[in-house]
Amino acid sequence: MDSQSYLSELFSLDGRVAVVTGGSSGIGRAVAGALARAGASVVIVARRETELAAAVEELTKDGCRAAWASADLGTREGVRAAAERAAEPFGEPDILVNSAGINLRPPLDELGDDVWDATMAVNLEAPHLLGRRFGPGMAERGFGRIIHITSQQAHRAFVQSGAYGVSKGALESLARSQAEAWSSHGVTCNTLVPGFVMTPLNARLSSDPERVAALAARTMVGRNGLAGDFAGAAVFLASRASGYVTGQSIFVDGGFSVH
Ligand SMILES: NC(=O)c1ccc[n+]([C@@H]2O[C@H](COP(=O)([O-])OP(=O)(O)OC[C@H]3O[C@@H](n4cnc5c(N)ncnc54)[C@H](OP(=O)(O)O)[C@@H]3O)[C@@H](O)[C@H]2O)c1
């Protein structure tokens, strides 16, 4: 067997359908691009249509099969609409990536019900509802991959973790519950855990060169994360190669969490 065939057997996503929430920006955009370039037909989900269309255009120009669905994952109705729209272009997904997330960061003693509810809705409830919608079908077909993007704040407090850290800790628990429910039917559920990644989510922190340098120094690799750093791990977790990896949290953080 030549090396291309071997790699393809392990990692190719040809014929797979993927739904990536938050696929119009940052980590989700990089992950959507990686899955599409590895062969999957990818539907990206977010609210802003201009950004969605731009991301799909970039992928289509690159020869990928991609489509977008606009919906607000902050409400149950929005999540239901997102799921139906996402399944339209290429059919029911084999791979679900939950990257859409918000981090509003008020100090804990000023954290109002509105911030709490919005954070839990987008970061935690939407991944659960999308899993409930797509997981059983994956199990019935005997193959599925669910990948959540959590955060180092699932493991430690960091820059006003507030509701955000709670939502990400629970998201890692959700991955384990989903893994328990569906792994015996070929559906693995895992999380990728970023450290500090230079994306629009961190616009405020990223614009402070001293903070950026201090955070880079806390990694072992010596720099902060880039969205593209998630490509390889996402393809691995979406592929046949990761069939015996489930319920796990995989840190893609340049050693931040162990330094
Ligand atoms: N950057 C970091 O350092 C870092 C660290 C740890 C964890 N993470 C996690 O990684 C994931 C991706 O973050 P990122 O840095 O790539 O963020 P980003 O660049 O801000 O992207 C967030 C994405 O989520 C979408 N989104 C937000 N709210 C939504 C809603 N209500 N409905 C539908 N889509 C929504 C956004 O599109 P619209 O605004 O158009 O809806 C966008 O596509 C998040 O879960 C985040 O918590 C990031």
TrEMBL record:
A Pfam family matched in the record: adh_short_C2
Organism: Streptomyces phaeofaciens
Taxonomic superkingdom: Bacteria
Domain Ketoreductase: 16-185
Protein name per UniProt: Gluconate 5-dehydrogenase
Family: Belongs to the short-chain dehydrogenases/reductases (SDR) family.
Keyword terms: Oxidoreductase
Family annotation (PANTHER family): 3-OXOACYL-[ACYL-CARRIER-PROTEIN] REDUCTASE FABG (PTHR42760:SF115), SHORT-CHAIN DEHYDROGENASES/REDUCTASES FAMILY MEMBER (PTHR42760)
Molecular function GO terms recorded: oxidoreductase activity, acting on the CH-OH group of donors, NAD or NADP as acceptor
Keyword hit for Oxidoreductase: yes
